[in-house]
Fold this sequence. Notes:
Blueprint: E1 7-13, E2 23-28, E3 37-42, E4 45-55, E5 70-71, H1 80-93, H2 97-104, H3 107-111, E6 118-124, H4 128-132, H5 140-148, E7 154-156, H6 157-164, H7 166-174, E8 178-184, H8 203-214, E9 218-223, H9 229-242, E10 246-250, H10 258-268, E11 272-275, H11 281-292, E12 298-301, E13 313-318, H12 336-347, E14 351-355, H13 360-367, E15 372-376, E16 387-392, H14 393-398, H15 407-418, E17 422-426, E18 436-438, E19 455-457, E20 462-464, E21 471-473, E22 486-488, H16 493-503, E23 509-512, H17 522-532, E24 536-540, E25 553-558, H18 562-565, H19 572-584, E26 595-600, H20 606-612, H21 616-630, E27 636-645, H22 648-668, E28 673-686, E29 689-699, H23 703-715, E30 721-726
Parallel strand pairs: 9-14, 9-15, 10-12, 10-13, 11-12, 13-14, 16-26, 17-24, 17-25, 23-24, 25-26
Antiparallel strand pairs: 1-2, 1-4, 3-4, 3-5, 6-7, 6-8, 18-22, 19-20, 20-21, 27-29, 27-30, 28-29
Amino acid sequence: MCYYCSMIAEVIVDITNSMVDKIFDYYASEDVTVGQRVIVPFGKRNIQGFVINLKQETTVDEEKLKNIISTVDDYPLILPEHIEIMHFMVKKYHLRFVDCLRLFIPAQLRSENVKPLVKTYIIVSGDPQKFKKTVRSNAKNLLALCEYIKPNQSYLKSELVSKFTQSAVSKLIENGILRQEKIEEKRTPPSIDIQCQKHKLTPLQQRAVDEIISDNSISLLFGVTGSGKTEVYMSVIEKVVQNGKNAIMLVPEISLTPQVLSNFRARFGNNVAILHSGLSVGERFDEWRRVLFGEAHIVVGARSAIFAPVKNLGVIIIDEEHETSYISESNPRYNTLHIAKFRSEYNNCPLVLASATPDIASYQKALSGEYKLLELPKRINDKPMPKIQIVDMLSEIRNGNTGMFSSALLFELDKCIKEKHQAMLFINRRGYSSFMRCTNCGYVAKCTDCDVTLVYHKKEDKLKCHYCGKRFKALTICPQCKSTAIRNGAIGTEQVVSALKEMYKDVPIFQMDNDTTRTKNAYQRILSEFGKSKPGILVGTQMIAKGHDFSDVTLVGIIDADQSLYHTDYKSTEKTFELITQMSGRAGRDKVEGKVILQTYAPRHYAYRFIANYDYKSFFDKELNIRKNTMFPPFTTILRLLFSSQNEEIVRETTKLCYNDIKHLRDEYLEDFVYLDAMKSPIRKIKNNIRYQILMRIKHTHENEIIDKIYKICDKYNKVSVFVEIDPQNLS
Ligand code: ADP
Ligand code: ZN
Ligand code: ZN
């Protein structure tokens, strides 16, 4: 027993590449607090760890217990709330503690590659003029320095040294005329200067704000594009901050436009911290600490900002809540909504989910009363929604137009350019190139068992179902019309841009996709140049669908709407509805009315009928009914267990053993399992790791109980990596 230590600390050791993920006990001195970073002996090395609990007793043999060597910082890096979040995530997603840590603390901080930016200032504390009289006349620098500085002013030391030499500055310090002070300077992400006028809320906006802050429930703010949701967020946040509490607002990474950030900066100034992946290492580190130390009370950021070290939360807002980017698809896998719900319960504060096209599951909860439904059904100032015209591309082909632009789109483009307005052309790249379609009759190959679109795997020249693993021969002849005009793949952004350049030699045409936005500022540059070009055309992927507010866009063209319709999962229709509604929302936001041309090979698909009428509610009814009949979420939960290892033999064997165990479990819960099967993963190998998977769909009745038992089964098999996904967005 150590005489100095009265406490036992539970420590998570910070080694990510280890298969061990345990909490270890150490003796701690009295000044160690929960959440603090410490150095502990581990094996033969000393390594970093985090204290997650302090207790009086341990079950570990006292002889074997070691002391914490030292603390790293003099404040805790992890809040008590985050320790709770960690336990929640470990249990819910079968994660390791260390993997959660990564979400809470910036990597740079843990590896100590970044330091605070500290600058030395010189403060004039004496009387330089009086001192000057004592200086010899040949000491030119010293005399000049005495002349330059003014009493009680402060200067950057580096500036004075470069102008007047180090020795002159030192001389004045020695004589008490100058005093040094080190001040930390926070690196803040840049934003553009804009005027952000605070609007008087409309009665509907006001009602939404009042409802949200009236209690701690979950609200679904269902407001069409341009209905003024942002103004609602800002007013809510303003009230929360006035009450001495803090706020987190999440937006999808893709719509974290400089405009959005600048709006918040303009309204809340330095009180806003911004967290997203585009920040420099130093900026991220400083913004994170501004939040931790309570210097910023509002966090605006992408998915991972839900983990920001905010104390005393007063509201969490998730903008575009339907976005799949809120779900992490790599380790650690989690759903932002689960974390947000946890934090709002922990802090007893309201949670706002907002969208023009709510997630089917969210809207169902709103209708059932689990969420409060708040609606903004009209655009601000009653501006009309742009008219959506559906164009049948098969009939274009029959009329001899085999190009990628329909005659309707060509007509509208010409008109738009002549009138010196702007157009946005949208190339849908979700599910890119993955399905096969007959261009004569529109037939698309589907799985006979699952009713989802088959994925074309080029290497094997096979069609596969990502839900059941079944394989089919690739199409050469259409089974419906016997045509051989089978196409796979989609039109690319580049093809569209070069076709447009041929047609409009003098019109600036911009391309925005993953290829053109690799560099840090490219995204912003393209947008700002497009904003100034009248006329101008912007061609892009879903990157251009969100959040932009260009007042002169009068035409939106959707080149191949079906891409996401035939994407290969049960949510593909829902995603199509969302994307096209969002994209349409870019048109006609100002004085001139907007128009949308939607090109499709399946003009009679129910999704398009509802999209054209902006009829979310009917779409929802239809979609929910389909989900109910096929027993997909929200009526079940999809669980995917992903096994991977470099050794195929071992993965296959492990998957099989685990699958057999789960089959026994299913016998116990026959009513609850809708589906259970094991198979190779559609993407069989990633970074040399061979992947197998077990897929399940489980009813909600005993869901938690069953999942707990499945995790216990997984724990038995630790020779390979096992990852868990709940309602995955993507089954590749
Ligand atoms: P949404 O996020 O719902 O798509 P925005 O918040 O971008 O909509 O609002 C659309 C436009 O309406 C913006 O230009 C915004 O400045 C303006 N706006 C919002 N609220 C008001 C209001 N109460 N009065 C006047 N204009 C408003
Ligand atoms: Zn056909
Ligand atoms: Zn299938």
